[in-house]
Design brief:
Largest sheet: 14 strands, mixed
Strand content: 15-25%
CATH class of the largest domain: Alpha Beta
CATH architecture of the largest domain: 3-Layer(aba) Sandwich
Number of helices: 11
Radius of gyration: 20 Å
CATH topology of the largest domain: Rossmann fold
Helix content: 25-40%
Number of domains: 2
Length: 339
């Protein structure tokens, strides 16, 4: 652990604690939307597998006939005011953000809104149409937007040391923050060591409902033709990985279960805005590696396919989440706030 950073973590956590106290006591008010609001968030800074869980919830809500809007922040994107995501925009991922575009593409019956401020984006969304529910992507720390259900995701593969507050660790606030959650979701449980999962469970508050989810690769999709390849077709092949995610180690681990990962694989900072120069560099390194397949995450694919000279060589790994335990429980919990 980075003990020398602890004073800075203490200062950061103190500021966050004061802010939360002001909201708890009603000193700072929050915008209350005219429809139910469900927040899906993290305690740590990214990499928990939040996007697949959000997608899972969206598909369940749409299947129930609900009209849903997603509220997201235009993080490291060009949108400067609340706007509805247009997946046909020529530079959609750069303008709206990679995760919002990915969610919009995967859920055409859902309206995805982005903006610099989630509460203002929520206010804008309800002014544009009538929705049954607003699903807030990464909303746990954004307390200016009131919510009816707080879902917090914890990565079962995350080291407990990383729950120290930034910059010492990766937590956005102290562990006490999980008390604000209504339900806790442990993700990637099938990828975690038994001892690590048990250590995390022992740290969880006893008064919270805990749900378990596993992650696996469903298939691979071509960046140009949208052709599908099964995991069996990738088995044993050399894979050249490109990603700009918070936890590339987990992505690599999943790929190593299928084939041999090239040592020349490239990882950028989370939410990296790929440039044409990056595209040329990636294609050159892929060529030199002599790997069989160029593979990215789905989130990276929405950017990469626009900057590669030959996007047909790109394959994105589609993640599938599975409930481990009582099936449909997450849907039941969300349904309770919609009645």
């Amino acid at each position: 652990m980075k003990f020398y950073l602890r004073p800075f973590s203490f200062l950061y956590d103190s500021i966050v604690g004061v802010k939360n106290s002001l909201y708890d006591r009603g000193v700072i008010g929050a915008y209350k939307a005219p429809v139910p609001v469900v927040s899906i968030g993290n305690l740590t800074v990214g990499g928990t597998g939040k996007t697949p869980i959000t997608d899972f919830c969206l598909k369940n809500l749409v299947a129930q006939g609900k009209k849903v809007a997603v509220i997201s922040r235009s993080y490291r994107a060009d949108a400067e005011s609340p706007v509805l995501v247009d997946v046909d925009h020529p530079f959609a991922a750069r303008y709206f953000g990679d995760e919002p575009v990915l969610l919009a593409q995967a859920n055409p019956d859902v309206s995805v809104f982005v903006g610099p401020s989630k509460w203002q984006t929520a206010e804008y969304a309800v002014s544009q149409d009538q929705f049954d529910v607003l699903l807030v992507d990464d909303g746990f720390q954004h307390r200016k937007l009131a919510r009816d259900l707080n879902i917090v995701i914890l990565d079962a593969t995350e080291s407990l040391d990383n729950y120290a507050v930034v910059p010492e660790g990766r937590a956005r606030e102290s562990w006490a923050g999980v008390q604000r959650a209504d339900v806790l979701i442990l993700t990637k449980c099938n990828l975690a060591k038994d001892d690590d999962l048990k250590a995390l469970e022992e740290r969880l508050p006893k008064n919270k409902e805990i749900l378990y989810f596993g992650y696996e690769i469903r298939h691979f999709r071509n960046g140009k033709s949208a052709e599908i390849k099964s995991c069996a077709e990738m088995q044993g092949q050399e894979l050249f990985l490109v990603s700009a995610i918070a936890r590339p180690d987990v992505f690599e681990k999943m790929m190593r279960e299928l084939g041999e990962v090239s040592k020349k694989s490239i990882h950028y900072r989370d939410h990296h805005q790929y440039t044409d120069h990056d595209g040329k560099h990636i294609e050159e390194e892929f060529r030199k590696s002599q790997a069989k397949y160029l593979v990215s995450t789905e989130k990276d694919s929405v950017k990469l396919r626009h900057i590669l000279s030959n996007p047909s060589q790109l394959w994105s790994a589609s993640l599938e989440v599975a409930e481990l335990g009582k099936k449909g429980r997450l849907s039941e919990i969300i349904g309770q706030v919609l009645r």
